[in-house]
Automatic annotation (TrEMBL):
It is found in: Cytoplasm. Coiled coil: none annotated. One of its GO terms (cellular component) is protein-DNA complex. Pfam families: Response_reg (PF00072), Trans_reg_C (PF00486). The keyword Cytoplasm applies. One of its GO terms (molecular function) is transcription cis-regulatory region binding. Keywords: Cytoplasm, DNA-binding, Phosphoprotein, Transcription, Transcription regulation, Two-component regulatory system. InterPro entries: CheY-like_superfamily, OmpR/PhoB-type_DNA-bd, Sig_transdc_resp-reg_C-effctor, Sig_transdc_resp-reg_receiver, WalR-like, WH-like_DNA-bd_sf. One of its GO terms (biological process) is positive regulation of DNA-templated transcription. Residues 8-121 form the Response regulatory domain. This is DNA-binding response regulator.
Amino acid sequence: MADRTKQTIALVDDDRNILTSVQMTLEAEGFHVRTYTDGESALQGLTAYPVDLAVLDIKMPRMDGMELLQRLRARSQLPVIFLSSKDEEVDQLMGLRLGADDYITKPFSQRLLLERIRALLRRNEASRAEASGTPGGGALVRGALSLDELRHKCTWNGEDVPLTVTEFLLVKTLAMRPGLVKSRDQLIDAAYGDTVYVDDRTIDSHIKRVRKKFRQVDDNFNQIETLYGIGYRYRED
């Protein structure tokens, strides 16, 4: 029986060598690991046995990583890291638009993957912990926007807006200082920390997805402004 105090990671990849080596590394670092070799078995397993984070390969038989991510996002905001080959840049960006929190290109350093996993788990925990200095025991309210960090809940005009961990942190960072411009580097630091490298396009993809989610509940949503060549800001009411 798995130690319930351990965080559980799902690895989904049709390359059994990758599964075995990464599983050994993660278990040596104190994680419990579940492995799957295709998207269909992963979807069944993750439905029956929820995990704390999933690492998904893009190219897999039966159900690829893109479709698996879509199915997962329909029911959960589980933190997800994508694995992709260097020549799959379009797939990487598509994965971010679908709601992946991060991606790593193959071949990859297992130390880098471990760092990304830990960083994302820390962000997930932080987003659910009570925020210091915000009103209402972790609730941040800006007009129609409400962010409840204790429950990882975002609403706009009272309607739920399901955000991933990274998306939640980006919205929070912008909304905490309305009118203040945040550069892409500042947003990267806020969402990923200063130990993980991601490029500017990653932030742009996340912001596009955030806007799309808000516009699904309000066609007129325009609170997040782009300042071309500079960054983003949350409009003052």
